[in-house]
Design brief:
Belongs to the AHA1 family. By secondary structure, the protein is of the alpha+beta class. The chain has 10 helices and 16 strands. It is elongated, with a radius of gyration of 22 Å.
Length: 330
Amino acid sequence: MPVTDVTTDPENLTMTIVADFAAPVERVWSAYSDPRQLERFWGPPGWPATFTAWDHTVGGRAYYSLTGPRGERSSGSWEFLSIDAPHSFEVLDSFVDDEGKPLEGFAPMRMKLSFTPTAEGTRMIGESHFDSVEALNQVVAMGVIEGTKMAMAQLDAVLQDLREFAQGKGTQVELLDDTHVRITRLVEGPRELVWRAYNEEELMRQWMLGPEGWEMTECVIATEPGQQHRTSWAPVGDTPGEPFGFEGEVLLVDAPRRAVTTERMQGTDGPETLNDLNLYEEDGATLITVLIEYPDKETRDMILATGMAEGMEASYTRLEHEVLAPAERS
C-alpha cells in the first residue's frame, strides 16, 4: 500500500500524509494533474470520483463529486493557489453542494502536495492546514484518514500500463477489510462491448456460465435503478451440483462505466451483498473491477469458500473467447 504514514498535529492544526510510489516524479505528477487519471483513485473503493470542471492554473478551480454505491454524493472544489510542475501544487480544498457553493459548517482547508524523487521512485507528502482543532477533528471523524489510505492504494494500477499491471494474472481477489472484497480481471476488448455483455441477455448467456458443465436456465436483466434482476444456473447431465440462482435490485447505473446491484440467493431473505461493477478501458483492453460488500466476515468467508473466484475466472475466459474475440475478428 503506497501510504506509509498519516499523522495529525492538533497543536499546529495539520494532517500529513506520506506515500511512496514505484514511479518517477513526472509520472506521479501526471496522475495528479490529469482529471481522468485522478478519477481512478481520488475516491476510495465504492466512492469513485468524477471531476466535472478542471482549470489547472493558478487561480483556477476544479470541481469533483464522489458517488457512493447507493447514489450518495459528496462534492468538493479545489482553488489552485500555486503550481510548480512537477514538484508541488497547493489548493484551497472545500466541501461544496451540487451547485459548487461551500457547505455551511465545513471550513475549507489548505492542502499542499509535494513530490520528490527517491531511490525507488517518488515520495509524495500531502500536508493539510486547518483553521481550528474542531475542523481537523471533524475531518478525522468523517473517516478521511482511512478513506485516503484506501483511495491511494488504487494508484499503483494507474501509474502502470494497464496490461503491464494486470495482463495474464487472471481473476485477482483482494480482501480490503472484513466486509469488502475487490475482484479484478483484465479482458482484451473495448469497454462498450464488455458493458453490453453484462446487459444483453443474448451475450450474457454466452459467457456467464461458471465452470464447464453448467448452463444458464434463467436470465432476467435489469438496466435501470429500481428494476429487479434474476439469474439461475443448473448442472448439465452428470455434472455434480444443485441448481441455484441469484436475484436483486439495481441501485445505480452510469453506463458504460459503473453499475451497482444488490444480490442474494433466490428464495431467501439473505444474506445480501452489494456488488459494485466498474469498467475501465485503456488501449483496447478493459479492466473489470467488482467491489463486493458483505454483511459480515463470516458471510464473506463462506461465499469465497464456494469457489466463486474460480467460477468467475472460467466465465471471464469464456467472455474473451466467445464474445470479445469474435467481435474483434468481424
